[in-house]
């Protein structure tokens, strides 16, 4: 049994320092969990922490998918000698789309999400009914490895609905969670008073100055153990902004000070992984925003890579930060030999990651028109969620009444990016929140907007936003009606009729295009780093699996492709290019290029 007081934790009555590392099962291919988890153990950690992303498990109301993954991950962690901390949300932030909340739900409940609203709570309760049995049966009190379970996530940054937090805590207990619950917030007074519960220990999240953070926690929660639930040893990236890194020596010094202060710790991240598919979230700066920090728009989508400058990089290889953290943890173990009693007799060795395929080129020799779905007509443009679409593309088409002279077009509520055509001619690229040159059109013309979602905001008051054309299209001040929509879904690789392109892919770059080629791999497969030189922006699939988005603005210029996705022989590489380019090749590079 795990217990706690102001001095720390005890497991079966003996002092325990929780040394944890964050690794999200949904950001790493299951075939590579063993290597990553073994590497955490070899670093000197005794615990792994994971969020649960609700939106991957319930992509539509009552339709549950991939429910076995959390249990499998916890079991693999146990095999690697690691305890586990589970953070089931329902909200997780995590730079993950919509903070993990399903888009279909937040579109329905709006600002009632993350409150004690009955409709929202009914959806949470139904999901927890399906999720929590896998956690309950793996608690340490029942012979498993789950040490603790979190209530919500950083709620003090968002709200102060104590009844909501109490409902979640009571629901976890009622469903059989007996290990300690906890909350997690920034070390600010208003966050710790708004996001905590009586009788539930509070933990704090920070990247530096542990003495100050623990001091605030101690002043407000004197009976709680010092625990940094998120030690931010790196940071995430946005498209169009520089790649973030943190000095390894500085991060190691902060870790040493956390331990010297008597704290338990969870490295966020220990291994970051990848935002595969369309799962990356986004951030939005509250106005007034600093244009030097946020380029031309307050909306900043997160990159496909979630490397995070973590101790284990995106492919699971150790970094300089890993080696320094390992030294800090080894010194701590030498100074606290009583902690060794909780570890098994195995001598942990750092397992190598998969090999990397050598540099090569894949010619893209086939092309196809993207297969948009059948058109439907609406009096006003529907948002993505009304079309049953989480992410993807929607083409909105309008006819401007006439006769009338040329007047300016205004796009209201664009989320998040669009290409504008007038009478079949590409005339403008539009970005959410960014200024653009005015476009004027005359009566009688056809106007089309190809709208792409780039990730729902995962933190702040815009969590739960809808996607698509959320306002409308105006000609001068007059709204245009009779909108025709065509949907292109991206969950799986679009099935299209490809044709050979003699001499490579050609075209005028007027519209989106699918291009395809084959990567030949020998019997010895490996990881790969794929780049799209000449591509502007789009999506890349390997054998039907969507790796994620690419964007020539960077900072990221390579995709990480895990070894389990590749097979000996021919592997299909498919791109959906949305810019005015026609990529003719994909390159394999021998190392990641993150900026």
From TrEMBL:
Where does the Glycoside hydrolase 35 catalytic domain lie?
9-330
What's the domain of life for this entry? Bacteria
Q: What SUPFAM superfamilies does the entry give?
A: (Trans)glycosidases, Galactose-binding domain-like
Q: Active-site residues? A: 154, 230
A Gene Ontology molecular function term of the record: beta-galactosidase activity
Q: Where is the Beta-galactosidase galactose-binding domain?
A: 513-571
Keywords, alphabetical = Glycosidase, Hydrolase
Provide one Gene Ontology biological process annotation.
carbohydrate metabolic process
Domain (Beta-galactosidase 1-like first all-beta) spans 381-481
Show the InterPro entries listed in the entry: B-gal_1-like, BetaGal1-like_ABD1, BetaGal_gal-bd, Galactose-bd-like_sf, GH, Gly_Hdrlase_35_cat, Glycoside_Hdrlase_35
Similarity comment text for this entry: Belongs to the glycosyl hydrolase 35 family.
The name under which this protein is listed is Glycoside hydrolase family 35 protein
Organism listed in the record: Kitasatospora camelliae
